[in-house]
Design goal:
Layout (H helix, E strand, L loop, with lengths): L12 H7 L1 H6 L24 H18 L10 H53 L3 H18 L4 H6 L3 H11 L7 H4 L6 H9 L1 E5 L4 E3 L7 E7 L2 E5 L4 E4 L4 E2 L2 H8 L1 E3 L5 E3 L9 E5 L3 E7 H10 L1 H4 L2 H10 L1 H36 L1
Antiparallel strand pairs: 1-10, 2-9, 3-6, 3-10, 4-5, 4-9, 7-8
Keywords: Ion channel, Ion transport, Ligand-gated ion channel, Membrane, Transmembrane, Transmembrane helix, Transport
Organism: Trifolium subterraneum
Protein name: Cyclic nucleotide-binding domain-containing protein
């Protein structure tokens, strides 16, 4: 029986099928009446009333045949069924080949990165042995190397950017260095301000391990650091600790210092006054591993020279003085010193007045 004809005049077709011996035999794949081939397991779905069950099973059957390359199916002699089975086998082989190729490329890339890391570690170990570093320093160097590799993924970012067009480099830096706008002084500027692009061009990626000191009290401030990831603490002369985290910056007092240490000659040229450099009144220490971008003193000097007119505006000067943690700490110290001095004067005045009244009486 190749076709099943149901009487359209009968109201209940399911009842007719249920009483039809030929129909029952056709819907039974094991009866041998019709060779269903690869669709033998799908025959019971014809009497399934739940549409979701039909769809889910059909989807499962498709994934099963692709994953097994239709190896568990025996098609009938029907030509289109044989061609369909061949297409499933071909598609499965293609997907399997693509999977193997991708896995091979991944393993090769992973092995190449691992080899590069091993060679770099071997060079560092040989250098430390040649220089006879103590074991404590070796441990810190290994830790710094591991964190630096994890932060950069072993990719020389500067070299990658240098090979790109200049306008594309600018757009990429604007995307990567959005944290620059989190610093109060730079938040006053528009995104396309030339000074922001000049700062982004000079930023250098830097990593610090836990316990490293970025600034030391009494030492020279040699860089401005923008924190990207990690936690730090800033300890002032009074011992008060101020937490620093992502989006914060330290060393921004260099901007103000370079502006104060320079002047303009009669010819309009920039003249750098002689000085020993800015010393830090606080200690900034890393509480965790820290990823940051730094701006060196040489670069800050160039920026302040190129954009001195903007940095000398009252608005920017107010931000530098009143929003900077350095200047807030300095102002707090000045207030404390003035308050102690006033209390001491009042105490001396009260003591003198009491002595005078005592001697008079």
């Amino acid at each position: 029986m190749k076709l099943i004809d149901c009487d359209s005049k009968v109201k209940s077709i399911s009842t007719t099928w249920a009483n039809d011996t030929g129909a029952i035999n056709c819907l039974n794949s094991s009866s041998g009446v019709f060779d269903y081939g690869i669709y033998a397991n799908a025959v019971p779905l014809t009497i399934e009333t739940n549409l979701i069950n039909k769809y889910v099973y059909a989807l499962f059957w498709g994934f099963q045949q692709i994953s097994t390359l239709a190896g568990n199916q025996i098609p009938s002699y029907f030509v289109w069924e044989v061609l369909f089975t061949m297409s499933i086998i071909g598609l499965g082989l293609l997907l399997f080949a693509l999977l193997i190729g991708n896995i091979q490329n991944f393993l090769q890339a992973l092995g190449r990165r691992r080899l590069e890391m091993q060679l770099r570690g071997r060079d560092v170990e040989q250098w430390m042995s040649h220089r006879r570093l103590p074991e404590e320093l070796k441990k810190r160097v290994r830790q710094a190397e591991r964190y630096s590799w994890a932060a950069t993924r072993g990719v020389p970012e500067k070299m990658v950017l240098e090979n790109l067009p200049e306008d594309l480099q600018t757009d990429i830096r604007r995307h990567l260095f959005k944290f620059v706008k989190k610093v109060r002084i730079f938040s006053l500027m528009n995104e396309d301000e030339p000074i922001l692009d000049a700062i982004r061009e000079r930023l250098v990626q830097t990593t610090y391990i836990k316990g490293s000191k970025i600034l030391s009290q009494g030492g020279l401030v040699q860089k401005m650091v923008f924190i990207v990831r990690g936690k730090l603490e800033s300890i002032g002369e009074d011992g008060i600790s101020v937490p620093l985290s992502e989006g914060d910056a330290c060393g921004e007092e260099l901007l103000r210092w370079y502006l104060e240490q320079s002047s303009e000659s009669k010819e309009g040229k920039k003249v750098k006054l002689q000085g020993q450099g800015l010393t830090s009144d606080r200690t900034v220490r890393c509480l965790t591993n820290v990823e940051a971008f730094s701006l060196r003193t040489k670069d800050i000097e160039e920026v302040t020279t190129l954009f001195a007119r903007f940095l000398r505006s009252p608005r920017v000067q107010g931000v530098i003085r009143y929003e900077s943690p350095y200047w807030r700490s300095l102002a707090a110290n000045r207030i404390q010193v003035g308050w102690r001095y006033r209390k001491k004067r009042l105490s001396r005045a009260n003591t003198t007045q009491n002595d005078y009244q005592t001697s008079k009486s």
